Structures are given as C-alpha cells and as structure tokens.
Here is the input.
Amino acid sequence: MDKSSKYRQLEKLRHSTSHVMAQAVMRIYNDVKLGIGPAIKDGFYYDFDIPEKISENDLPEIEEEMKKIIKENQSFRNQKITRSEALKIFEKQPYKIELIKKLPEDEPINIYENGEFVDLCRGPHIRNTSQIANFKLLKVSGAYWKGKESNPMLSRIYGTVFNEKEDLEKFLKRREMAKERDHRKLGNELELFTIHPETAGPGLVFWHPRGAAVRRVIEDFWIKEHQKNEYEMVNIPHVSKSHLWSTSGHLDYYRENMFPIMDFNDGDDYILKPMNCPGHIIIYKSSIRSYRDLPVRWAEMGTVYRYEKPGVLHGLMRVRGFTQDDAHIFCRFDQMMKEIKKTLEFIVHILSTFGFHEYEIFLSTRPEKFIGKKSRWEQAETALRRGMEKAGLDYEVDEGEGVFYGPKIDVKIKDSLERMWQCSTIQVDFNIPEKFSLEYVNEKGRREQPVMIHRALFGSLERFFGILIEHYGGRFPLWLSPVQVEFIPISEKHHKYCYRLKKMMLDSGIRVNVNNKNEKLGKKIWQSRKMKTPYMAVIGDKEIDSGRVSVRKLSEGEEGTYTPEEFKNILLKEISLKK
Here is the structure.
C-alpha cells in the first residue's frame, strides 16, 4: 500500500472513531446537540453542545463507553435520503438542520448509521466498529460553531487512533515530550519572552534579554546570508493610509484579519500594516527602473499586525504582532524561473543551517476568491512548477489554497518530534504589480510590467523561534544559545578572575555570564543546567593558581581543564560550525 493509500485508510479509521465517540457521548449525556466530527492530521475531534460541562476528567468514562460500542460489532451503513427525510431525522439537532438547509435542495443527502447512531456525513467509513482498537481521547477545549465568535461555544473533544498499537504508543510518547518542550513553558523557564494580555494586549510579544539575544543572532545571520545572495535591505513604516490597502486588494479580501482603521481627524485614515509588500512597491515606484536594473531583490525583517481572534492565539505560534522575514523580487518574465530556483535553494540552505533537514513542499493553486485573470494565474502556477522541477524538488499540489493575489509554494519542515510546521513560502504575483501600475523600461525603450515574487524563509520570526525552542527542547546549539558559557566562582574571592575571563570572551563575541550569586557551588551548577547553558566553567583557587579553567558541557559533563585561550578557541570553532 503506498503512502497516500495508507493515509486515506487511516483517515477513514479516524473519521469512524469520531462517530463512535459521538455515539458514546450521546449514551452518557442527555440533550446532546451534535456539531461536526472530522478526521484531522493527528486524529479526530467532535463538537458538542451539552448542558453539562465536560472536562478531561470525563474522558475515561467516554472511552469505556466507546469500548462497549466497539465490542458490539456495529456496521457502518451508508444511505442516501431526501432533504425532507433528513430534516425529519435530525429535527432535534439544530446544527445538523443548519447544515442540511445549506445543501442543494434537489440533491440526495448522505447519512451514515452505526447502531442507534446516525450522522449527516459524506464518509467514507470502515466496515465495522470492531476494526477500531488503538485509540485514545486526548483533551477537551472550547470551539465556536463554524469558528465564528458570534456563534455558540461548543465543547470539542479531541482523540486519536492508529492501526497499530505501536504507532499509538509512539504518538502518545511524542505528545508527552511535546508537553515538556512546549515553547510557552520553556519560554518562561528560560526567560526568553512573555506575553501580557491584561496589560499590553493578547498576541503581543515582549522579548526578554535572553530571547532578544537569540533573536539578534538569527537576524544577523539572516542579513549576512541575504547580502551574500545579492539582496539589499529596506525598511518601511508600520502604518500607512487606507487607500494603499484598497489598491492592493487587502481591504476587499483580507479585511477581517486587519486591525481597525485609525482616524486622526486630518482627512486621512490609517491602518497598521498586515503585510510589507505595498511598502516595498512604493520604494520600487520611487524611480524609473530599466531592464538592466532587474532583478531587484529587497529584504526586510518587517513587523506586521494582524487581528487574530482570541481563540486562535497560541504563544509565539499565533500572534497579533510579528516580524516577517520578508523579501520581494521584481524581475523580468524571462528571469522568473531562475529566481524561483535560486530562492528554493536558498530556503533549503537556511533551514538546514538551523537543523531542519526533512521537509515537504506544496504548490497551492488558485482559490475561489481571487483577483486577476485566470491566464495570469496559469502562467504563475506553471512558473512555480518548473522552478521546483529545475531545483530537483518533489512536491504535492494543494488545490485552491493559494492567496487571493497569486499561487504559492509552501515548505513544511519536520522537527525532532516528527511534527510538520509551515515556514517558508514563495508567491508569484502578476496581479498586484498590475494594480499598482509597476513598470520597467525594456531593451526597446517600452514600458513593461515586472513580475513580483513574494517570499519568506522563516515565515514569521516569532513562530520560527517557537519552533526552534520545541525542536531543541530549549537546548539550543552553541551558536544560537542566549548564554554560551557561564563562569561559576566557588566563592566571592574568585569573582575578579571570572570577570577578567568574561571580558576576554566578550571581546571575541562570545555571550557569557558570571554567576555571582551567594549560593553553594552545587546550586549554581544546577541553576546553569536549568537554564540549559551549553558550557560551564568552575573557578576556584586551583584554577586561579594554574591559570586554567575547569570546563563542564551541558550534554556531556566534565570536559577537562584548558587555558582561557584554548577554551576560547574551542568555543569559537564550535560556534563557526553552527552545529
């Protein structure tokens, strides 16, 4: 069985298990109103409107009832019925009635039954409940009906199921590891960042010195690599007049994700930027461009603001103010393929440097709501396909998942817990250049429209930082660590020597700390390990008398003793390797 067939089979199993879970809930609780219960990437969920409040303490009871249903060997039976029959069957299920009324009146309606349970469902399902064996209910959360805050809040129960017991055990083990690596937990413990919803607002990040140090390392590396790849840096304002966003199409197609318009009573309305592209376009239009000037590659760590709903905010992964590692390439049509190929190679290089060597690539095509001509979309999609093929990269197609102004390539990376994360993106855009009347003068002296390529390598710096924390479990490689070495004096009389060593390291660009707390040596070492500092150097009489340092490595323990110069060179070599 190939990979896609296995996935479809697993999806059937998970969808079927969600029905069994809903059936169990209806057996246990009274007056249950059913929402929807799809299979998802790591399992399934079902939404319920229940008078009683369900918590995770109730999950074992639901699991036991599910086991009873499984033992009943219920068959999943498919039936096509009329609209009037469906309305009758689900007359006490208001959410199902709402869904039925949105279906075409003249088309048969699909339902599935198992035992006494019946659901509005396209399927497919497994043959029998007895095929379900390796399942686990995971958590309970709130979810608005259809994701709209104006709709009722439902109880969503998540679960997972696998064909093999071993796969379930691996998944649950990874899940426990993920809890320990949760970037919100580690971000607080390692003093990297905080978010203050009550005082500053939800989804807005405060970078503490340690987190800001890592961020600066990432930004400096990013800038140097872009300069090597012939990008120039630009910076744009955080607010601009609303008509700019009318021209770009964002007010028509993206309004619900934008902060409200600001009226300063000066005759103009302003908006916090949700994207950087219109700002880069303004710079492009500031002078006449020749075909000899192209391609123009402009990059920016540009902070943007998007009004994400409170229910979807999640640490650094989903925020309202974040920094896109944005770049825009303005090029001729004949340069487009080469630029896409170069960008893909650049993405692979950057991600691998940060320790991500496995990834999946997706081509997202024209969505239902789009701007521009279909012929332009087809040209753009063809260019992206050929760029990936020229770079020798395999990809899958996500039909209809492009952004409103153009198709895109998305790169999803696999972390150390085998989870996939969406990061890098490349978007080919013929439409926004047309909306803003972008031009260059071709070799014949005529005005011609350039192609605009939007691209990001990390996507969001905040989100990428969160992924890094969880990927490494907070134990960053030396080159990324906020503090690379900590000197630990045994007593106060050893402080002076430690501070001399600190200055020596700082002069070489090494990030260093001296633990001068009035604590016992064992506790100081424990504190350093708790903060996941890669190297510790204990300093006492013996080290001062010999002019050496006793080095401990977080991952390996005692390393031995070195002269300060030897130790410095060991650190610099490891930092340079970025491993």
